[in-house]
Amino acid sequence: MKYAHLIKLTVFSYENEISQDVLDAFLMFFPFNLEDNKIAFRKTNAHGFNESKIKIFEATLTKANLIKQFLNNLLKNLDETQKNTILQQVESRLDKNLDFFLRFDKDLWINENKLILTDSGRCFHLRISVAAFPKKREIALSIVRSLFSEK
After folding, report:
1. pLDDT by residue (tens digit) across 111-120?
2. Backbone φ, ψ for residue 119 (5° rounding)
């Protein structure tokens, strides 16, 4: 079953953080090498409040095989509590374009390799464009529920 036709992962690295740690944690989301699979990985510099320097790491997946591998890796790293929370919040995490959003605590992933949902800004942002055909909210919700219900 095809769950998504696009996945985008983004994280901000602030100047008081070790960028390499953030980058290493970012790459742990992918069970394959981005460069070997010709995945566009972008590193952008930006300025935050008080002119603080920010690096933005971003990768977008569009190939079905890589999306499947990514989602399998994501599910493997989520415990049942997190999956249940996602299932309880499924309605609020799906927008009108049928994009499904998750945020994972950055510090817990970097330091403890634990994917824990968060509402804070210190996070890894994940956008999953749900492959719903026809493009209807009920179908997208069903697909997301199916994905996070898998054992």
Report:
1. 999 999 999 8
2. -110, 0
Q: Which CATH number goes with the domain that contains 54?
A: 3.30.1440.10
79, 107 contact by CB (below 8 A): no
Residue with tokens 């300025």: 47
CA–CA distance from 6 to each of 62, 92, 114 (Å)? 5, 19, 24
pTM exceeds cut of 0.90: yes
The count of structural domains within the chain is 1
The helix-helix angle for 80-88 and 137-149 (nearest 10°) equals: 170
The mean pLDDT value for 4-10 works out to 97
Domain span at 117:
4-149
Contacts 24+ apart (CB under 8 A), 102-107: 102/126, 102/128, 106/11, 106/22, 106/25
